[in-house]
Amino acid sequence: MKILSWNVRGLGQPRTVGRLSQKIRDENPSIIFLIETKLSAGRMEKVRKRCGFNNGIDVEAIGRSGGLSMGWKSTCDVTLRSYSVRHIDVEIKDEDTGSTWRCTGFYGNPETSRRMESWNLLRSLDDSPDMPWLVIGDFNEILFAGEKHGGLLRNQRQMDLFRSALEDCALDDLGYSGSWFTWEKGRSEQSNMRIRLDRGIANNIWWSLFPNFTLQHLQHSFSDHCPLLLNTTPNGNGGNRVWHFRFEASWLLEDSCETTVADIWHDSGDDLLEKLSMVLKGLDTWFRKIRREKNLSVNDLNKKLADLNDLQPTDDILGDIVETKLALNLELDRKELYWEQRARSNWLKHGDRNTFYFHRSATQRRKKQSIEAVYY
């Protein structure tokens, strides 16, 4: 099972919703926990369903801050335990293990003077010591001074109170892979600040239930927080997909499509069926190459962004990070246009793109777009 946790810093813009939808489609989580949605419960419900999660709960933002949402796929057996403006707590009946365990999405109070309220909330949630328990989210605090670079030194007492709360609840940090920080601010060497504010923690029973779990800090191109992706069964196999040829209307947007068809047609024999067969095979090969190049472009940009984030921030490095994020956004825009063209729909207006509607519409058209046989 995959769980995606992300402080998205507001979902009021269609472009931001499009970025979220793309990340969800790429990672395919079963459960999402979103923080700082800055939306009413009603608007957030629409966004959540648009992303493919019809089941879930949305906590209202207070004014222009806060707001939580947790969604889960219909294939998941999830029961809501409790929620507040700082947490959403659910029970999950896991099909892989046959066990029931808790997943708590957590949002620590951003006000330092009220941080103790968050730790007391965490203690109050520790009411089932015999159940596997995972807590994931933005805690707005660090455990050790080394988890913050730049800015003022963290107050030692703040960190001690956070560690004390985890000890009282018998929760341990899960670690991570990827860039060491989860939050960044400042685009110059003098002002840059990086902190590990987001994390996953769990009790020993949960660790024993999922000994091979992974937790990744994913690359991203919006929000000052990075997404966390927890995978309880990283060795799971999603099955092999069978490739069926179908002509995509978006191919006509590629400059090389027309010349590729013309070259294959002229190089084939005189028989019409043979020509059609050669064009089909040739386009299949051509599209695989185009798709591979586009995927490599996005993967290369993500890798470049990860490498840049690992370097000591200087003005040049931070400038490269901004340029790489802009390039990544451009590639994601192209992918959104692909889905819009593939769905053959004019429903999308005013920039509200890459929604669940288009993916569903494109899927429903697959049977109509394929050629089952040619009779002569």
From TrEMBL:
List residues traversing the bilayer. none
Alphabetically, the GO molecular function entries are:
catalytic activity
One Pfam match, given by its short name, reads Exo_endo_phos
UniProt cross-references to InterPro entries, sorted A to Z: Endo/exonu/phosph_ase_sf, Endo/exonuclease/phosphatase
Source taxon at top rank: Eukaryota
Which residues are in the Endonuclease/exonuclease/phosphatase domain?
Answer: 4-198
Its recorded name reads Endonuclease/exonuclease/phosphatase domain-containing protein
- Organism this protein belongs to: Hibiscus trionum
